[in-house]
Amino acid sequence: MHEMSITQSVVDAIVEKLDDAVITCVRLEIGKLSGVVPDSVRFCFDVICAGTTLAGASLVIAEPPGVAACRDCGAEFSVDDLILLCPCGSANVQVLSGRELRIKSVEVA
Fold first, then answer.
1. DSSP state letters, 27-81
2. What is the value of pTM for the model shown?
3. H-helix or E-strand containing 15?
4. Which of 57, 46, 50 is nearest to 22 (CA)?
5. What whole-number distance in Å separates Cα of residue 55 and Cα of residue 60?
6. Which residues pair with 99 in a beta bridge?
7. Is the C-alpha dihedral spanning 66, 67, 72, 75 positive or negative?
8. CA–CA separation, 45 vs 63, rounded Å?
9. Which of 3, 7, 17, 67 is the most exposed place for a label (fewest CB within 10 A)?
10. What confidence tens digit (pLDDT) does each residue in 15-70 have?
11. Rounded distance, CA 81 to CA 34, Å?
């Protein structure tokens, strides 16, 4: 489960930046095409935060949809999984969004 190491990295980055500040809320953005399972991150978050300044903090996850553009026909279309095919049948596509994995904000008490 790589979500455990990803969540650990998020918590480590916040603790490193904010040192002893008490954190009340963490907002993440995890795109639908990122390969990260938000529910797994939620589960790992409480476990990893125990004993840190993030203990008891809430976790809010936004899940931006996948959007791609076809290089052959020029159409933009939504993508729900990692199979990137344009409705025209072309696989020559560019992902425009949905691969995000970032800390959007942190609320401090």
1. EEEE-TTSS--HHHHHHHHHHHHTTSTTTT-EEEEE-PPEEEEETTT--EEEE-S
2. 0.85
3. helix 2-18
4. 57
5. 15
6. none
7. positive
8. 17
9. 17
10. 999 988 999 999 999 999 999 999 999 999 999 999 999 999 999 999 999 999 99
11. 10
